[in-house]
Every structure is written in structure tokens, then in C-alpha cells.
Amino acid sequence: MSATIRHMMNFVVKTLANAGALAVAIWLLQDITLTGESTGRKALTLVLVALVFGVVNILVKPLVKLFTLPLFVLTLGLFTLVVNALMLLLTSWLAEKLDLGFHVEGFWTAVLGGLIISIVSWALNVVLPDGRD
Q1: Mean pLDDT estimate for the chain
Q2: In 3D, which of 129, 131, 119, 132 has the Cα closest to residue 20?
């Protein structure tokens, strides 16, 4: 399998894992909402939000982690929960700007949502294929 196809497959798998993880957080937490006129529209919105979430995690999260490195060291990594919450809140803000029906209400909801998303995303990435031979 060519490297390009492998990278595309990996991107699709990671996006689907993000969508699944976001769906679990939406299902478990009443203050994380996804709206749409139909089930199909909600599914499309969920995939688009997963794409936004993926872009945020690729572009913004490494910079935030770099600038807050001392806090990661001081808290023995627990500051990751705060960074994940901030990435989820940023995704919610961007989704609003892009007119996507996704919203996270409050910082503590984002902390819990970020924890749920991290756990589910990790589990899905273990189970789903990633295009490696």
C-alpha cells in the first residue's frame, strides 16, 4: 500500500475515532450538545466537528503544550486535562463561528468532556485499523 493511501486511511480512522469519542461525550453530558434537523444532518455535523477538533489538536494543542510545559511538569501531567478542556472549548467556539450545531457549556463540562473524549478516542484508536501493514 502506498504511503499516501496509508496516510489518508489513517486520517479517516482518526477522524472517525474523534467523531465516536465526541458522540460518547455528547451522549453522557447534557451540557455538550449537538443539534440538527435530522439524524443524517447530526451525523454530518458530528463528522465536521470531529474534523475541526482534529485540526485544533494538530495545530493549536502542541503550541499550548509548549508554552505551558512548566505547568505539565509541576502537575505531573494533570495539566493535560486543562489543555484538553481548552481544545474542546476552542472547538465549540469554532463550531459556532462555522454555524455547526455543536456547543460545550462551561469549563468544567469541557474538562469532563475532554477526559471522556481522550479515553474513548484512545480505545477506538487501539481497536480501529490505522493503515499499517
Answers
A1: 91
A2: 119
